[in-house]
Amino acid sequence: GFVVRVPLRRHQSLRKKLRARGQLSEFWKSQNLDMIQFTESCTMNQDANEPLINYLDMEYFGTISIGSPPQNFTVIFDTGSSNLWVPSVYCTSAACKTHSRFYPSQSNTYSVLGSHFSIQYGTGSLSGIIGADQVDVTFFWVFSRQVEGLVVVGQQFGESVTEPGQTFVNAEFDGILGLGYPSLAVGGVTPVFDNMMAQNLVDIPMFSVYMSSDPEGGAGSELIFGGYDHSHFSGNLHWVPVTKQGYWQIALDAIQVGGAVMFCSEGCQAIVDTGTSLITGPSDKVKQLQKAIGAEPMDGEYGVECANLNVMPDVTFTINGISYTLQPTAYTLLDFVDGMEFCSSGFQGLDIQPPAGPLWILGDVFIRRFYSVFDRGNNRVGLAPAVP
């Protein structure tokens, strides 16, 4: 079938940038957060749709355009939310001044809906109005002219007029394109992929994500609408049913550390989330996990001795009877500070309150290792070892 490829770029995350500049602890202070306490017990209540801290480590971004003529935006393609939003020209928050903003008056295809939207984040709410326009997720360049790719017409999206705190100011992205189920969409807006299906823009109602492990630019990272690419994984895809349609939620059978079941022995729930960079779980469990891998709290995160990677335990997620094992090199993040190697844990505590939680979040640390296919036609997730 016909598939559409969206290249993803990999940039240095905000956390790494701040760390390199020696500004990480200042950032935490500006958020009024005690670093370690926060790392261990970031709590999401029901009305917080997204914990903002997720975006501190985001590294994979794509480009979309909205309107005609097209206005381009860098976005995170986020399976953990379902709205599309970009900054509005009417936004005066500090964060909007540093990003591309949407000018409705410059688009011939824009229509104003005027209803308000608000997305709660840990440090404040992002709010604005909802408009509708054409959204092109896969335009490409020919002789420096932008050529239309996959165009969704009449897509409702948020134009943010206020953006909270300092968090978005330094962010690499302008906005977020949610790929979750419609039930997660704020304001009852139809998500982009649902419109793609309704407008027959994809042959098969699925999309897939490949996140390259290549640290410089993440060459080859891509999101594919309408199918998947065999060259990105080895062996067969193993399919896992979605247990609850909102997030891309699945059941975990168990989590093993060094071959012994440590968590989730009775089973638990997880989501596969391209919009979370790390792997998160209930803070009390993750605290035990950090200890088990030998990670020590330092400067707002958990550090490990880079020299110990070869003796640290594997961490295995058993999903639908299949083992998905992360070696220490996969679940730790390597960075250089003043020429010195710095290794940090790819696990983080995040408490998601009932009824949505508790949940483990299998973010980019997991997806880099396991190619992920999101099948809306059969409400299932496909996983297979990614080709690095």
Describe this structure in words.
The chain has two domains: 45-201, Beta Barrel (Cathepsin D, subunit A, domain 1), CATH 2.40.70.10; 231-385, Acid Proteases (Cathepsin D, subunit A, domain 1, Beta Barrel), CATH 2.40.70.10. The radius of gyration is 20 Å and the shape is globular. A hairpin with a 2-residue loop joins β9 and β10. It has a seven-stranded mixed β-sheet. It has a six-stranded antiparallel β-sheet with strand order 1-14-13-30-31-15, with no helix packed on it. It has a six-stranded mixed β-barrel with strand order 4-5-12-6-11-8. Residues 32-53 have low confidence and may be disordered. With 388 residues, it is mostly beta strands. The chain has eight helices and 31 strands. Helix content is 13%, strand content 41%.
Q: Could you list the spans in which at least 5 consecutive residues all have pLDDT below 50?
A: 32-53
The CATH architecture designation of the largest domain is Beta Barrel
Estimate nothing, just give the exact number of structural domains: 2
Please tally the β strands and state the result.
31
Number of helices: 8
CATH superfamily of the largest domain: Acid Proteases
* Estimated structural class: mainly beta
Query: What's the Cα radius of gyration?
Result: 20 Å
Q: What proportion strand?
A: 35-45%
Short description:
Pfam families: A1_Propeptide, Asp. Helices cover 13% and strands 41% of the residues. By secondary structure, it is mainly beta.
